[in-house]
Amino acid sequence: MNECILNAGRLPPSLLARLGERFELLMLPDAAEREGFLAMHGARVRGIVTSAAVGVEAALIDQLSELQVISSFGVGLDKLPLQRAHQRGIAVGYTPDVLNDCVADLGFALLLDVARRIAEADRFVRAGAWPRAAFPLARKVSGARLGLVGLGRIGRTIAQRSSGFEMAVRYHSRRPVADVAWTHEPDLRALAEWADYLVVITSGGPETRHLIDAGVIDALGPDGVLINVARGSVVDEHALVQALLDGRLGGAGLDVFADEPNVPEALFTCDRVVLTPHIASATRETRQAMADRVFDNLDAWFSSGRLISAAAPA
Ligand code: NAP
Ligand code: 8YV
Q1: Which 3 state secondary structure label does DSSP give 239?
Q2: For the CA of 10, the nearest atom of ligand 2
Q3: What is the CATH number of domain 100-275?
Q4: Mutate to test the pocket of ligand 1, among 72, 73, 75 (most ligand atoms within 8 A of CB)
Q5: Is 260 a catalytic residue?
Q6: Candidate list 22, 116, 210, 278, residue with the active-site label
Q7: Cβ(99) to ligand 2 under 6 A?
């Protein structure tokens, strides 16, 4: 008999089809029907599959007495009950590394777009404004100062991208990284003061909540650009919007937001921002690699009792 897996996330249909061939796959119903569903099926569930954006509630795993493993589509761990899972001996799998390139690419694309005003210039041409006016000047990227908030797997990849643009790189994180030549800056505000472009790529969750606050935004200043490809929670969104509207911050490129999919409406008419709907890993190649890792983690767990990519306990 195939192991029973519960889908609690939003996952690509091709992954669900593959999981359905290998396992008995159940779909978690809406809250109204959940109690009856869990009473009927909960005791059979050995695994949960979910996505980083949706996660799993600790209350759900508490209702699944036979749960052994959670396999998450994505690298962010902020919506997974890591501590509770660890206490229960439940293994947690995720998809690190396979998305580094695409998240770094999108971070860099946002940086280039905001600096060179590409989306704004596109709107200008489409509106038929070119024959009537000159498009305003932009900011140079090559040779500028890049500050990275976070130098993990993706942060490093962004730093590597910048070498082609001959940028000076410094980074902030709680601990300096041993094997890199880039300068560690222990004071985040000092990094923001130094940087022309500040790219946020830390983990999310309570530890990094509003790390980018009004003070950091003001230190970056009216010529500075903030890029966030980490989590909306890392930036004080209210302070960010206010600084953009007041002209105290030069610009922003945002892939993630505090209350997705809701984006502050004040940003819709602000030409200094470029907004994308949490798509940094969303290429066919990377999403396939993530889907394969989600499947392989579950398959490996039930074949050998080991995960290919295990998230460390909180
Ligand atoms: P990672 O390798 O774990 O790197 C996390 C980095 O954040 C490390 O450099 C870490 O350094 C730093 N950090 C953690 N807490 C910090 C704090 N309180 N203050 C300062 N720095 C802190 O993770 P990754 O694979 O690079 O991914 C990073 C994040 O990107 C994920 O957690 C996810 O939320 C986000 N992400 C977003 C998308 C998207 O679609 N937009 C896609 C993938 C990932 P220290 O531990 O030394 O502080
Ligand atoms: C995805 C992400 O959009 O990996 C992450 O943490 O935020 C993105 O790769 C997400 O996993 C889809 O739920």
Answers
A1: helix
A2: 13
A3: 3.40.50.720
A4: 75
A5: yes
A6: 278
A7: yes
Using the mean position of ligand 1's atoms as its centre, give its distance from the Cα of residue 230 in Å.
7
Model confidence pTM above 0.85: yes
Q: Where in the chain is the domain with CATH 3.40.50.720?
A: 4-98+285-304, 100-275
Instruction: Assess if CATH 3.40.50.150 describes domain 4-98+285-304.
Output: no
Tokens of 141: 């990227």
First to last CA, the chain: 33
Query: Nearest 5°: phi and psi at 309?
Result: -125, 105
Q: Active-site residue 120, yes or no?
A: no
**How many angstroms separate the alpha carbon of residue 157 from the centre of ligand 1?**
12
Q: How far does residue 202's CA lie from ligand 1's centre (Å)?
A: 3
Q: Is the CB of 311 under 6 A from ligand 1?
A: no
Asked if 278 is an active-site residue, the reply is yes
Using alpha carbons, list the distances in angstroms from residue 116 to 141, 163, 167, 208, 251. Answer: 8, 18, 16, 29, 11
Residue 211 has pLDDT above 80, yes or no: yes
d(CA 76, CA 69): 17
What is the pLDDT, as a whole number, of residue 297?
A: 98
Q: Which residues contact 242 (CB under 8 A, 6 or more apart)?
A: 214, 248
Tens digit of pLDDT for each residue in 188-208?
A: 999 999 999 999 999 999 999
Length of the chain (residues):
314
Cα–ligand 1 centroid distance for 38 (angstroms): 34
